[in-house]
């Protein structure tokens, strides 16, 4: 069984040439949407994917480029597809996702909670959750913004997908050298300093064997100017499918 990933967007929060950094993961016949940002609905539409085609959605953190499309997803699933969508989320995100992000737009009449709109599956942090055959996801808390929870994901034990995270070479080294990670999709900021994301200059300090398995996403509109300036790392292409495990 193969598991693959297609970035429906590879852009930073402010990019205009690329959609928000959201992904589709296909494991056999199971289709997971990883983050659904402001441009998520348009990006899915562009690929001919309807919300009703998704088996579940997983959320990394509550910035708009990662969750800003969830209100439309919830309403479309309720009123167009008439099925409750499955929502996977690291357990500590449940309260902020509802109270700080979705409550204002979704509540009406008796519909007053996250569970009224989603079939919520809480994931323990630091432990693997089997989402489907061939799709096991471990949320790892990673530093992004002071006071805001953010989770990266270890998928099937060998694929690390960074949510938005600050540069953390110790974690990457541990994942590769001790836990057997063979592929890394990492968010990046093109120009230093990388304050809330890793910047390319920081990522270039990674050992060669880690760079060789690292692909870059969540980039700004000037990404083409940086092709050839990323060491052994390469940029992920929006809409292209990559085999994961
Ligand atoms: O302290 C801060 C907080 C935020 N920001 C910007 O706002 C963006 C929000 O989405 P993002 O997390 O993809 O990227 C963030 C940055 O581009 C920043 O530069 N410094
Ligand atoms: Zn982001
Ligand atoms: Zn963010």
UniProtKB/TrEMBL annotation:
Q: What's the catalysed reaction? A: 3',5'-cyclic CMP + H2O = CMP + H(+); 3',5'-cyclic UMP + H2O = UMP + H(+)
> What InterPro entries does the entry give?
Metallo-B-lactamas, RibonucZ/Hydroxyglut_hydro
Any one GO molecular function term: metal ion binding
Task: Check the record and name the Pfam families matching this protein.
Answer: Anti-Pycsar_Apyc1
Where does the Metallo-beta-lactamase domain start and stop, copy by copy? 10-218
Q: Domain of life of the organism in this record?
A: Bacteria
- What is the purpose of this protein? Counteracts the endogenous Pycsar antiviral defense system. Phosphodiesterase that enables metal-dependent hydrolysis of host cyclic nucleotide Pycsar defense signals such as cCMP and cUMP.
Q: What is this protein called?
A: Beta-lactamase domain protein
């Amino acid at each position: 069984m193969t598991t693959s990933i297609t970035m429906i967007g590879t852009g930073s929060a402010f990019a205009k040439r690329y959609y928000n950094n959201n992904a589709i993961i296909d494991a056999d016949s199971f289709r997971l949407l990883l983050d659904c940002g402001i441009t998520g609905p348009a990006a899915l539409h562009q690929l001919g994917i309807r919300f009703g085609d998704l088996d579940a959605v997983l959320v990394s953190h509550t910035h708009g480029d990662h969750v800003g499309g969830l209100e439309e997803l919830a309403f479309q699933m309720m009123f167009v597809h008439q099925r409750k969508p499955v929502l996977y989320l690291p357990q500590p995100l449940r309260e902020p996702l509802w109270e700080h992000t979705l409550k204002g737009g979704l509540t009406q009449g008796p519909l007053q909670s996250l569970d009224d709109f989603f079939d919520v599956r809480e994931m323990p942090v630091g432990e693997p959750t089997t989402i489907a055959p061939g799709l096991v996801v471990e949320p790892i808390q990673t530093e992004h913004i002071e006071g805001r929870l953010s989770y990266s994901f270890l998928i099937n034990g060998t694929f690390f997908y960074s949510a938005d995270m600050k540069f953390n070479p110790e974690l990457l080294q541990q994942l590769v050298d001790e836990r057997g990670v063979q592929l890394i999709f990492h968010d990046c900021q093109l120009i230093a300093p990388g304050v809330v994301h890793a910047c390319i200059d920081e990522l270039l300090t990674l050992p060669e064997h880690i760079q060789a398995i690292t692909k870059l996403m969540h980039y700004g509109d000037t990404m083409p100017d940086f092709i050839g300036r990323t060491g052994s790392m390469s940029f992920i292409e929006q809409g292209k499918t990559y085999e994961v495990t």
